[in-house]
């Protein structure tokens, strides 16, 4: 079973994603802000991190940059979820070290499909 960290401060969206991914039999840990996400990343090994761009404490970009500096965590696949979908935003996300970008709003099945593709690589 693949283990995923979901870092999302919007409770309704977080619950929707968790329910969808648990139905697909993924193991999910949840963080409501960037600081909590980074703590969980230090404590656990994840197959994938789903992270919101705009969060309290630390932004998703800041978390990604810090994760990429952790030697034993630097290769984890990271997907940025964001309503900020201008080209400059996408470039910042790529520069920070995210592997993929999914624009909000997205369908739960779109997310499941993308996660399946990423984890099968």
From TrEMBL:
InterPro entries listed in its UniProt record: Bact_response_regulator (IPR050595), CheY-like_superfamily (IPR011006), Sig_transdc_resp-reg_receiver (IPR001789)
PROSITE patterns in alphabetical order: RESPONSE_REGULATORY
Presence of the UniProt keyword Phosphoprotein in the record: yes
Record SMART domains: REC
Protein name: Response regulator
KW Phosphoprotein (keyword) present: yes
Gene3D superfamilies referenced in this protein's UniProt entry, alphabetically: 3.40.50.2300
BP terms from Gene Ontology: phosphorelay signal transduction system
Response regulatory domain residues: 3-119
Entry keywords, A to Z: Phosphoprotein
4-aspartylphosphate modification, residue list: 52
